[in-house]
Amino acid sequence: MAQILDPIPSDAHGQILCCYVNATSKIQIARVSNVPNWYFERVVFPGQRLVFEAFPEALLEIHTGMMASAILSDKIPCGRLRVMDESDPTPPAPAPEPEQMPKRSPRNSPLDNKGIVLSDPFSMTALTSV
After folding, report:
1. Residues 29/79, Cβ–Cβ less than 8 Å
2. What is the spatial distance between Cα 32 and Cα 41, in angstroms, rounded to a whole number?
3. Which of 72, 70, 42 is CA-nearest to residue 54?
4. Contact, 111 vs 118, CB < 8 A?
5. What is the CB neighbour count within 10 angstroms for residue 17?
6. pLDDT tens digits for the chain (130 residues)?
7. CA dist., res. 16 & res. 89, Å (int)
8. Does residue 123 sit in helix, strand or coil?
């Protein structure tokens, strides 16, 4: 894929094809800021896809447009935006494992309004009057 405006520095190797989708109803500005000697900034309209080449370690900053300003709303590693290319022989890096929820200590058994211990409060039949 050719990026005619602001191509990736030619002395670097390892670029990947990336895709970002603006899934909001606001105009966004996508900017890569941590690659030296390279300026990449694009306006992304609601629902639009942005396909670009970058390095896996590059960070895509997403600035959401407001009335007279833009707020930095996200920083996404370009390695997470990688598009699988059939001509690319290198497999993608494995996705990071989701964090495990911390184990909660067992709580005391719940009581009903009469002080009776309920073994499973969600298995009780609910009575309603109409």
Report:
1. no
2. 7
3. 42
4. yes
5. 17
6. 455 566 676 666 788 999 999 999 999 999 998 888 888 999 999 999 999 999 899 999 999 987 777 889 999 999 999 998 666 555 555 544 545 545 555 555 555 555 555 555 555 555 555 5
7. 11
8. helix
Residue 28 identity: Q
- Integer Cα distance of 130 and 95 in angstroms: 52
Q: Which residues contact 129 (CB under 8 A, 6 or more apart)?
A: none
Q: Do residues 20 and 60 make contact, with C-beta atoms less than 8 angstroms apart?
A: yes
d(CA 74, CA 60): 8
Q: Which amino acid belongs to residue 90?
A: T
Query: DSSP states of 75-118 as a string?
Result: EEEGGGGBPP-TT--SPPPPPPPPPPPPPPPPPPPPB-TTSPBP
